[in-house]
Hints:
Layout: H1 2-26, E1 39-40, E2 48-50, E3 53-62, E4 65-74, E5 80-86, E6 88-89, E7 97-105, E8 116-124, E9 134-138, E10 143-147
Parallel strand pairs: 7-9
Antiparallel strand pairs: 1-6, 2-7, 3-4, 4-8, 5-7, 9-10
Amino acid sequence: MRILMMAALLAGGVALAGCEGSKSEAAAPAAPVKPKSLARPAQMYAGQEQILSVSAGEVEVDSGKLILKVAGATPSAGYTDAAFLPRIYAAPPKDGVYEVDVIATRPEGAATQAVTSIEVERAWAGYPKERLKGVKFMTKTNEVVAMLPAAAAPAAGS
Length: 158
């Protein structure tokens, strides 16, 4: 009887020791959660796709027009008709940063598979002037946020 009680106490102690280890593992900081986008991509035409990556982005207001500029890369040479495709929102984003896909038409046929640089500059007609504070440029592998210059951004609380 004593042997059974000793074995039960020993097993209980081992089980509790295992719990302590899991508590310390559970206390490890979790990776930051990327906020979910509230926008959905707009429809692309046949042959269009997001470019591979963007290294720099800029927005500016010139004569009442919003000018978007990016420097990025495509997976191969031969991409044409580079453009920006604003994402669709059910309601304006709370932070005033609108998402825009950076797209281009992929080459037809075989193309050398060497990363190629690309620059895109276009005006965004009909942009949400009263609410826009910045633009998030979206690509296949990354995203870059460019904020409007302070003089062009809408006032806080707008």
